[in-house]
């Protein structure tokens, strides 16, 4: 489904752009009509054209998936509620189809002859005179006009000829075709664009038919402008008053040569070829492979044993297969170098092995070596490692790593002896062995439908006597950065101390307070808050521009505090504001509001993160 939607949309977009750029403004309206309809059919057909067949050897001996080579694995995955996105998708699609179907039927009903309508004949078509004021329009075999305007001879013959041209050329069939597509593919905006282009081209065709009957072009254009002032649209009808009057006037005067048509059509050929190649269907074909038997004799003191190893080989080895082998061999090699353990990928390892045994000895020696060789194992070229031993049970794992683990009942941490007691009582089916949020391997007793009534209530949480390694590392990085900046400011006497946010200071002060004695001995000291900026050496009056800068910073802080209702310190701006205020003369300070006034309602909090106010 995804392949069809994506590729059909891409094809339709390219074909529409070709029409918009090279065909829309030409005078070949009949050819354009067929092009627009066929481009839709083509875009919907190309994704089903098979352009490539991939042959996959039939899998006789599937490789066991043991991508996870760690000793532990999940015992039971907690059952969680999941949305059924397929049902939601099809429900939304179905609602859209119902709405578009209702719209389609509703529009069709508007073309039924009502009791109050008067029916006459125009040429071979039905002329329906309606009492309501309506712009002339047509559908299928009928032309609809206003009864009042028709009886008062206010509808020019050119208008009726225009609508007759729509019926003669059966434009309603194109519109019905598009409406059916819109019901099924209502979510695709390109079909609405294509419908608009088709209806606009219908107007070009009708305009052309009217002018070819000898009607003066200027008179006809004046009629168009007159009916533009009474505009309304019908979804299925061909209306005389279709938009883009300026474009229609321009097209009436256009006459494109036959040579230009041929050249533009030739450009379409490579475009269609590229669309088929890039958006066509890739088909998968499964094919049985031949078997290669390799016999190896192993002799000991008393017995002679014949070992038969069976490998799959490809029927036709291509350079693409050898390129694929080299890629897979490098992937296995790099992964094992980074993780320092053997790895087997479910499908890729078997495919790599099949290609390796399909190569000749010369090809094997001239390409990437077998990635498992030279890794402290007894494997030979072309062999893969056996599957890892089964993961131990929860009790076995606890016996081996009891003091290294954390223990949880539901979301609450519990002591080891309580966890072991619960596991012995309720069994190991609901036990998961995995890292906790702090990265420590943990035994997690999960609540399931089977044990919901047997699990005990959660005990009081265990208070950690030390912080996790992750918190310890995060604190050290933060403290080191701020301590270094404070030391540099003190050493250089430039007062460029670190600006510490209140929430960060409280967070890391809490982490430091929860550290054990040994952790504190290895941790960075808690950064001290910066001292107040030094008083100005003199009380020289600052410039008017600096006073304006100070007031701007002050108002910025006040506005932020008013909206956020919390203490805020801007890294550069706060220090600059304090510096400007302390540099003012006494007279300037008396005329401008003091910066520390901002925090008068929360002096205690402000004292934690800001230097004290300057002495008056």
From TrEMBL:
Chain residue ranges for the region called Disordered: 449-468, 516-542
InterPro entries, sorted: Beta-lactam_resp_regulator, Peptidase_M56
Residue span, Peptidase M56 domain: 7-233
Membrane-spanning segments: 6-23, 35-58, 83-105, 175-194
Record bears the keyword Transmembrane helix: yes
Keyword Ribosomal protein applies: no
The entry's keywords: Membrane, Transmembrane, Transmembrane helix
Name of this chain's protein: M56 family metallopeptidase
Lineage, opening ranks: Bacteria, Pseudomonadati, Bacteroidota, Flavobacteriia, Flavobacteriales
